[in-house]
Amino acid sequence: MTKKRITVLIPCLNEEKVIGDVIKAAWAGLNNDRHHQVLIMDSSTDQSPKIARKLGADVVTTKQRGLGQAYREATSHIKGDYIIMGDADGTYDYRELGLFVEQLDKGYEFVMGSRFKGWIEPSAMPKLHRYFGTPLTNWILNCIYSSHFSDIHCGMRGITTDAYKRLNLQSRSWEYASEMIIKSIHLKLKTTEVPIHFYKDKKGRISHVKRQGWLTPWLAGWISLRIMLVYGLDFLLYRPGILLTLLGLIIVLPLTAGPIGHFSLYTMLLGMSVTIIGLFSLMLGIIARILYDYSGMETQRWLNLFSYNRSSILSALLFIIGVGLTIPLLSDYFINHFQLPYGVRDQYYASVTGLLLIVSAFINFNFTLLLQAIAVRLQPYN
Predict the structure, then answer these.
(1) Which residues, listed in sequence order, are joined to residue 42 by a DSSP beta bridge?
(2) Burial zone of 225 (CB within 10 Å; 0-12 exposed, 13-18 middle, 19+ buried)
(3) Which of residues 80 and 257 earns the better pLDDT score?
(4) pLDDT tens digit sequence for 304-353
(5) Cys-Cys link to 178, which of 40, 103, 227, 297 (CB 3.0-4.6 A)?
């Protein structure tokens, strides 16, 4: 067993039929060394806390119900250097916690249990979850965050206490599971997976899903998806923004000198629209990156790139060049009593590029001011 002190952290809600076996398994996984800690975050109305205390666990009554809430309130009660967390329903085998400790001792900061890499007892997981829900949400998260998790909904996990505190969990319910994984990615925690066993409910126990109704897993999946998207704006805004901006410029710039074959002013206006949408997406994505920058390095990089002096000069140049290119269009507009003559002159193509430069100057300058304001707001108060 490691020299590090371990806390086995277990939220509990009315599990008097199985909590005793769960705690005994936890102490067995800890080699019955009372130097370690079994911490029960309890919201029960049955005999669960009484049973837990009798078996030597530390029991803390949570103010509100919810898995995420329990993990949030646990922070000040954790005594260990490592945390092994999991459910109180008896579906996880805490005698296997050595698998997690071994990886944490190797320097990993976050160790996910994987039921799919391990063994799932027949009928332990509903087929809808096993073959549709979990694989689908796994794929979505891995796609958004370029990760390689095999079982994002597994409740048995190991993490260093330092990393746990840095996660600063905000979720109060099921979505804590996705929040932990996503923040581990943002924080660039050293992460791995270990195979575990997953068991069906003990005889006489009714799962929380059955207690709360058939809609519960669908609601849990929907909430998890929301968390993935909220924390995944880099994927939804930043990368598409880059692609759209480049695509728009590829359309606009070659047509600045005039039409090319069948590509006319209408094609250019389309390219201008795509470029503007891309710029807005890109800059919103940059703001999202700053909001989810827990190290401060990403924020500083963008602040340096969009420094006030540099952006002011660039915006002024874009504006001046843009105004110069729009002169032929504006001239014809005023000469013809606020109407454009029939027929498209080649000079109008350059004017469209000029309008795009003017809009880009406006976007760039105001984005820089907003970026600086957000950076000031995010600075901790002394």
Answers:
(1) 12, 61
(2) middle
(3) 80
(4) 999 999 999 999 999 999 999 998 877 877 777 666 666 666 778 898 99
(5) 227
Contacts of 116 (CB under 8 A, 6+ apart): 134, 150, 151
- The residues, any chain, with a CB within 8 Å of residue 304's CB and separated by 6 or more, are none
Q: Is 196 helix (H, G, I), strand (E, B) or coil?
A: strand
Q: Phi/psi of residue 8, each to 5°? A: -90, 110
Q: Cα separation of 140 and 63, whole Å?
A: 33
pTM > 0.70: yes
Measure the CA–CA gap between 31 and 74, rounded to whole angstroms: 23
CB 144 within 8 A of CB 233: no
| Residue with the two structure tokens 């007892």 | 121
6-12, strands of its sheet edge to edge = 58-61, 37-42, 6-12, 82-85, 157-160, 110-120, 191-198
Q: What is the pLDDT of residues 75-94, one digit of tens each?
A: 999 999 999 999 999 999 99
Burial of 379 from C-beta contacts in 10 A (0-12 / 13-18 / 19+)? exposed
Give burial (CB, 10 Å; 0-12/13-18/19+) of 235.
Answer: middle
Specify the residue for token string 């891309």: 278
Instruction: Show me where the domains of the chain are located.
Output: 6-231, 233-377
Q: What is the pLDDT of residues 110-141, one digit of tens each?
A: 999 999 999 999 988 888 888 988 999 999 99
User: What is the rounded radius of gyration, in angstroms, for the C-alpha atoms of the chain?
Assistant: 28
User: Which fold would CATH assign to domain 6-231?
Assistant: Spore Coat Polysaccharide Biosynthesis Protein SpsA; Chain A (3.90.550)
Sort 374 into a burial class: Cβ within 10 Å, 0-12 / 13-18 / 19+: middle
Task: Give per-residue burial for 54-80: e unless 16+ CB within 10 Å, then b.
Answer: ebebbbeebeeebbbbbbbbbeeebeb
Which amino acid, one-letter code, is at 218? W
Q: Which residues pair with 374 in a beta bridge?
A: none
Residue 193, CB-side half-sphere exposure with 13 Å CA sphere: 18
To the nearest 10°, the Cα dihedral for 311, 313, 316, 321?
Answer: -110
